[in-house]
Design brief:
Blueprint: H1 3-27, E1 62-66, H2 67-72, H3 78-85, E2 89-90, E3 107-108, E4 116-120, E5 123-124, E6 154-160, H4 165-168, E7 175-181, E8 188-197, E9 204-215, E10 220-231, E11 262-275, E12 280-296, E13 319-337, E14 341-359, E15 374-394, E16 402-419, H5 422-425, E17 447-463, E18 468-479, E19 483-497, E20 500-511, H6 515-519, E21 522-526, E22 535-540, H7 545-549, E23 558-572, E24 575-592, E25 596-597, H8 599-607, E26 615-640, E27 643-661, H9 666-670, H10 680-688, E28 693-703, E29 706-715, E30 718-720, E31 731-733, E32 736-747, E33 750-757, E34 791-799
Parallel strand pairs: 4-7, 22-26
Antiparallel strand pairs: 1-6, 2-3, 4-5, 6-7, 8-9, 8-34, 9-10, 10-11, 11-12, 12-13, 13-14, 14-15, 15-16, 16-17, 17-18, 18-19, 19-20, 20-23, 21-22, 23-24, 24-26, 25-26, 26-27, 27-28, 28-29, 29-32, 30-31, 32-33, 33-34
């Protein structure tokens, strides 16, 4: 069966149920209660250049998540909140993955985290400087850190579940997340919340507020938002249950810290505009976020070669401390020329600086003279973008004017890797170099890198008839480090009746390799399946001599082809249902190779003058992938004399398959290295490391001064594959339902809330396979809802 016919089968299966439901509903009597419009009937700005598109009239699938919905999730993290309300978004909570434990990636539709473009008020958001290189979903990606955007500043979020590279440029293969900031010139709120896990740890405290103001009479407005957060770490590690060993914890001892990190954070945002003349408006916004995050490394036993017993007679757990400083600012002007042309000129600055410290640790080679805390260096990303957008409407005799938009963009990106203090990386003991837990960046692996890109783009959209609308976009982009790419997009929507419409999109896209993927170098401690001792694995740039000896080649852009077909229905007044089937093919996907280890690898590294390292890896365009799925979203509001009930439901089925793995480079065989560059563990992480299906159900009831929310999310199963390929150690973790609930009471401007996330204290399946941790890690970091259990909280807020 061809790929096109397989997609047709998926689309037919996805559309059959709602078509049947529509037919039945059309003949049924209307409900006695009144139903109102929902989020699906609101105007959107993402994926369109017009100002009249709504979720249901859009030619591409899009979700709107309101600030009220985000707050009802009970979390202060944007990525966590979105994962609880969007069936197509996955945000696991890995532990013991170095910096990834602190700055976690989110993925959309099962694609890579850095294949999702993030916008703020329609402008490109800068990425994090961190590269995720250890055993988590999103391994090898350097995406945007969604949690740097303060929740208190958000008006709503629009999620375009469709590739839009032709409109927005690189990184939009999986979709676009557009965060819309609060911008009103009046009103505000102040809140305090506190809670903890039922297990007794993980206490969280948040103080948040926002307020809008006018200035210069009615000409100017500004909205300010801020929040302060404190989160204590959680620990779900188990006791050591293996045989006595000097390199392990004592039998029955719980030595590891396995859970969420501790966090101290504050964030602030400003969003304003000033009417310069009747036809020109100045605007701008900015966000700043500082986070102090402490996660944990592997336990070093008293008798381990990684310990100095005179310093830590009971062993120790190194602490990895990240200080994340994140800033962004957009300044622009917009207006009209002659009442015909709309224009927008803007400058966009983004900055992320990530310091690394290793604390409560040592450098083995220094013996008892070792410091206990080390500065390991820093990673830094800077983005500068200048945009000019022009738009004009032409009356061509169609049902609506033809909206034509075009523009140009200049972008300058920088990425730096800065060295740490000498003792953080010093190989005084060549077999145990640097600070244990996270060794510092040496000058030899550090550097400053940059590139420029230029783009021109055009977009045309109109309602050709009262029933048929269409949109076309094209974008040409040139990068200084790898050349040029052109992307295109065609979308259309046909309304058979006012209550049923069909929509579809064909598009091409690309993602440029990030500077971090091209140049990052470090050494990380990894425990590999079936090995009782840690491995020191070094990441090499693909253009380095060592990586070339392993068969690496210079990175090139990923390219994509995607198609979607969807149905929009309104079977009852106020009930909206959308069903969208999709397929995304990615060619030359950039992945981090498997950990290449063994005596031959060690010998090759030592021949290059690299000691104390027993494994290597590098980035490569070695795989092609195909992602297929169906999204179903529904919303209904029921108003009665007793109150209002808002019901929402969502379903995503998605699968990703690796359709090509490039043959092993000949140099590997020539070097006598019988290794798999992309092994079954990495293939499994891409294909089965995220839930293939996810269901979200939510209800919000409002009656006079009371509010109550109840939601349930079913996370599908995930599978962990290991090497060698034996079915006795692979494990599939069963699907789980997670329920969240809250009750609120309003008294004047005050609102009092009590709630519980994971109401029934549900945990993922425990690991049953025997591995080097001997029961010390009872849960998998692949769990899409983490493994912390119930979180109970209270909140008091005042609004005006």
């Amino acid at each position: 069966m061809t790929r096109l016919s397989l997609l047709s089968v998926a689309i037919a299966a996805g559309l059959a149920t709602p078509l049947a439901a529509f037919a039945q509903a059309a003949a049924a009597p209307a409900p006695s209660a009144q139903a109102d419009k929902s989020e699906l009937d609101k105007v959107v700005v993402t994926g369109t250049r017009t100002s009249t598109r709504t979720v249901v009239t859009s030619q591409s699938p899009i979700d709107i998540v309101s600030a009220e919905t985000l707050k009802a999730t009970g979390t202060s993290e944007l990525a966590t909140a979105l994962s609880r309300v969007l069936p197509s978004l996955n945000f696991p909570r890995p532990a013991l993955t170095d910096g990834t434990s602190a700055i976690r990636p989110a993925q959309l539709r099962g694609l890579a985290p850095d294949q999702v473009l993030v916008l703020v008020n329609g402008k490109r958001r800068h990425t994090s400087s961190l590269l995720n290189i250890n055993g988590s979903v999103g391994r090898g990606s350097a995406p945007v850190d969604l949690n740097t955007i303060p929740m208190s500043a958000i008006d709503h979020v629009e999620v375009l579940r469709d590739g839009a590279s032709a409109q927005y440029g690189s990184d939009a293969i999986a979709g676009v997340v557009n965060v819309i900031l609060k911008g009103t010139d009046h009103g505000g709120s102040l809140s305090y919340s506190q809670g903890r896990m039922s297990a007794g740890d993980g206490e969280q405290i948040e103080v948040a507020g926002d307020a809008g103001f006018k200035f210069a009479g009615e000409r100017g407005s500004v909205h300010l938002s801020g929040q302060v957060n404190r989160q204590e770490h959680t620990n779900r590690a188990g006791p050591y249950a293996g045989a006595p060993s000097a390199s392990q914890a004592a039998v029955g001892q719980t030595a590891f810290i396995f859970g969420d990190p501790s966090v101290r954070a504050h964030a602030f945002s400003v969003n304003g505009a000033f009417k310069l003349t009747n036809s020109i408006e100045l605007y701008g916004w900015g966000t700043t976020s500082n986070r102090d995050i402490t996660s944990y490394a592997f336990f070093r036993a008293p008798g381990s070669a990684n310990n100095v017993p005179a310093v830590y007679p009971l062993g120790y757990v190194p602490e990895i401390n990240n200080i994340s400083k994140d800033q962004s600012a957009v300044l622009g002007a917009r207006g009209t020329i002659g009442n015909d042309w709309d224009w927008d000129l803007s400058y966009n600055y983004g900055y992320n600086h990530l310091d690394f410290y290793t604390r409560h640790t040592l450098n083995v080679g220094l013996g008892t003279a070792t410091p206990h805390d080390f500065y390991d260096g820093a990673l830094e990303t800077t983005q500068n973008v200048v945009n000019l957008d022009l738009r004009k409407q032409f009356n061509i005799g169609a049902a609506s004017p033809l909206s034509v938009a075009f523009g140009a963009e200049s972008r300058y990106d920088k990425w730096n890797q800065s060295p740490g203090e000498y003792l953080s990386y010093a190989a005084i003991n060549p077999n145990r170099p640097g600070a244990q837990g996270f060794g510092g960046f040496a000058p030899s692996v550090s550097g400053h890198y940059h590139r420029r890109s230029y783009a021109v783009y055009a977009d045309a959209e109109t309602d050709i008839t009262s029933k048929f609308s269409a949109d076309a976009a094209v974008r040409y982009e040139h990068f200084s480090d790898f050349g040029s790419k052109t992307s295109g997009k065609l979308s259309a929507r046909y309304a058979f009746t006012p209550n049923i419409a069909l929509r579809g999109t064909l598009s091409t896209g690309f993602r440029a390799p990030s500077l971090a993927q091209q140049y990052f170098q470090t050494v990380s401690t990894n425990f590999l399946q079936g090995n009782p001792v840690p491995f020191e694995i070094r990441t090499f740039p693909a253009t380095s001599p060592v990586a070339k000896a392993f068969g690496a080649e210079p990175l090139k852009p990923e390219t994509s082809k995607s198609a979607s077909l969807g149905l929009v229905t309104q079977p009852l007044h106020g009930l909206f249902v959308t069903v969208d089937a999709y397929q995304v093919n990615v060619k030359d996907r950039i992945v981090l190779s498997s950990n290449l280890t063994g005596d031959g690898v060690r010998a090759l590294l030592e021949s290059q003058g690299i000691f104390g390292v027993n494994g290597g890896r590098y980035f490569t365009n070695a795989v092609d992938t195909r992602s297929r799925g169906v999204d179903v979203v529904g919303s209904y509001r029921w108003r009665t004399d007793a109150g209002t009930l808002d019901l929402t439901a969502g379903y995503n089925y998605g699968s990703t398959k690796i359709t090509r793995v490039a043959p092993n480079p000949a140099v590997l065989a020539a070097s006598g290295l019988n290794l798999q560059r992309i092994d079954r563990t990495e293939i499994g992480r891409i294909e089965e490391g995220f839930p293939r299906n996810k269901i979200t159900l939510a209800g919000l009831w409002k009656a006079h001064d009371w509010e109550a929310t109840l939601s349930g999310t079913r996370y599908g199963s995930v599978t962990s594959r290991v090497v060698p390929p034996t079915t006795t150690v692979d494990q599939t973790y069963a699907a789980k339902w997670i329920a969240d609930a809250s009750v609120s009471y309003k008294l004047g401007g005050w609102k009092f809330t009590v709630g519980a996330d994971n109401l029934f204290n549900t945990y993922p399946d425990e690991n049953y396979f025997v591995n080097s941790t001997s029961g010390q890690f009872p849960y998998s970091s692949l769990s899409p809802f983490g493994f912390n259990g119930r979180y109970v909280y209270g909140k008091v807020g005042f609004s005006w």
